[in-house]
Write the structure tokens for this entry.
Amino acid sequence: MDHLPRSIKNLKLRQNRVRSKMHGTQDRPRLSVHISNNHIQAQIIDDDNRQTLVYVSSVGRKLNGTMTEKAAAIGKDVAKKALNAKIKKVVFDRGGKLYHGRIKALADAARAEGLEF
């Protein structure tokens, strides 16, 4: 029996459950994180106006190191861009994944650069 369809279904259920309770506003937008096998993407979203305010991705960039180190670099970059856009407080949307490993590295790096969540 293939467990992949069940895993994807469970991930989607967790994402929907988390996002039903979380909403990004103009004062406190949502920091959404997506991590695939090869790349990391982070974006800050204002859900009220349906706008992406800040977007950072590892696609097309030469980042060295492990995926955890790349996640930390993306976290630093998204925090710098957010502070340039005068965004200091965000709501962290981990995308249904556990707060562990790459997600934690990205969040810790963003906090170290001055982003509050």
Summary: Strands lie at 30-35, 40-46, 51-57, 91-93.
